[in-house]
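Hi support team,

I'm filing this because I wasn't sure whether my run with pyridoxal-5'-phosphate finished correctly. The job status page said complete, but I'd like someone to confirm that the output block is well-formed before I use it downstream. Pasting the exact inputs I used:
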Amino acid sequence: MRPEALEALVDELASPGNASSLHTSGRRARRTVEEARERLAAALGSSPSEVVLTAGGTEADNLAVKGLYWARQTARRRPVVVTTAVEHHAVIDPVEWLVEHEGAEAVYLPVDAVGRVDVDALRPVLAARADDVALVSVMWANNEVGTVQPVAEVAGVAREHGVPVHTDAVQAVGWLPLDFAASGVDCLTVSGHKVGGPVGAGALVARRGLDLTPVLHGGGQERGARSGTIDAPAVRALSVAAARAVAAREAEAVRVADLRDDLVAAVLDAVPDAVLRGDPDPAGRLPGNAHFTFPGCEGDSLLYLLDARGVECSVGSACQAGVPKPSHVLLAMGVPLHDARGALRFSLGWTSTADDVAALADAIGPVVQRARRAGLSSARARA
Ligand code: PLP
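And here is everything the job wrote out:
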């Protein structure tokens, strides 16, 4: 966490109060929450009344997908949800849940080899079936391979057909220029821990007048869109972190992209057959993202070997019951299954330094050699 966010969190934890209560502590907590809402809105280019506070990005994505879907089933049934094959599971899984339980029909827009969605694939869907479409959901930038999506174009096409658009901007806030009002989208997801704030805090920024059926029912907080006592310490810390991330964005994006470029060069130098995935053009990728596949390696083995040397990274895909599952993002990009198994994502952030990159540069060559030897000997054992 950013120090100013941690300080805000701890300070607020020391003064408990329920922002819905009318007594002095409650009114104080309400003031804190509304100031935080204003700070967050200013950082995101929205009006404070458009901010629906949630317990993280997953909840905001669920509220957007299910809430919009249900709200759009009016006199006319609209079963279609249009999204992409590379969304985070916080979007894909609610969509699949709607398919399974509510008779929805999912349309997954394809992506190209760098993971960018094809807006031309959206046009015919909307031209043929706009009246059947409940919503379009396209992420602002991909969390695995860092590819930036053409969200403004998507919003433009959807608007022509009167279809609301959600974007998961969890990875974009504080790294890419982002202005909710100018973006053309109807709602946008934010998560605290991606901007140096606390885990378990987030928001769905929803255009005024957007009809959302709540997922959580109860005390009617957040204009009825999200019931539950507001976590004032988390909200304050989230807003402080987001404001700081956005204020520092321009300089940080350049600094971190430079470090990322050094990291990419160092990895390719040490492991010449490693393949950089996502957009090789820095303009089309998140500044802090470097994603590779290492032929002949298991991503998990690399992860543990690097971890033992103090380098923490991610395979970027799910592991179910101990069985590694290749990333749906890489498969959608057309990466062959055996290559997708050797995926590793390095994420840089506001704390990253040149020393971190140097540590990885030292470790990656020997680690890949060791993982390949292990892969060969287990293949021999299986034979
Ligand atoms: N969406 C994206 C693109 C993410 O990267 C993440 C988290 O990694 C989420 C949603 C989920 O957010 P949270 O962890 O706040 O629930």
